[in-house]
Amino acid sequence: MSLSQEEMDAIIYDARDGDLDFLKEVFSEIVPGSVLPTIKDDITLSTPVHMAAANGHLEVVKYLLSLLPHDEAVALVNQANESGNTALHWAAFNGHLPVVQLLVEEYGADVFAKNSSNHDALFEAEKNGQAEVENWFLSKFAIENDVRVEEDGENTKITFTPGTESKELDREAAEAEKSRADSVAAVADSTASLSL
């Protein structure tokens, strides 16, 4: 089943406005939920999930994503619009922490995805003064992570191990202090032998 752009726009606008009752009526009586991934604004390429997330409509986001098998919902959550923004970028930018948490924890939203301006969701939250979202990201995905990137085109994988950077810096600082102490001792020994 395919929808006209006018029909898609109506669904997108209702998601933006948080009209859960209308969306439930549409997807239970008029169109199957399986068409959800095909519904996009013809100019911005934003989906109903983008719009609901951007406006903090947690129950609408939950409902829309429940219409799809989990793997399709994950793909929709990570779908970028024409500016490269995902639903997570918009939720973070507008400070909608419960939506951010749902997208990340339940649907694996890619927190490292970059938009066309090369910004990830953390940057968007920080740029727009959304401290609660920013702090959640920082507590969940600490800056001092050992990040490994395995480049493979569209299948690039990013893995990280929290906390390794500070442990490495502590080890290096201890080694530097030992080296400094050894140097001071060596200089003291050589100076002492010169004065004899």
UniProtKB/TrEMBL annotation:
Residues 165-181 have a biased composition (Basic and acidic residues). Pfam families: Ank_2. It comes from the Eukaryota. Keywords: ANK repeat, Repeat. Residues 153-182 are annotated as: Disordered. PROSITE patterns: ANK_REP_REGION, ANK_REPEAT. InterPro entries: Ankyrin_rpt, Ankyrin_rpt-contain_sf. ANK repeats lie at residues 44-66, 83-116. GO terms for biological process: protein localization to T-tubule; regulation of cardiac muscle contraction. PANTHER family: ANK_REP_REGION DOMAIN-CONTAINING PROTEIN, MOLTING PROTEIN MLT-4. This is Ankyrin repeat-containing protein.
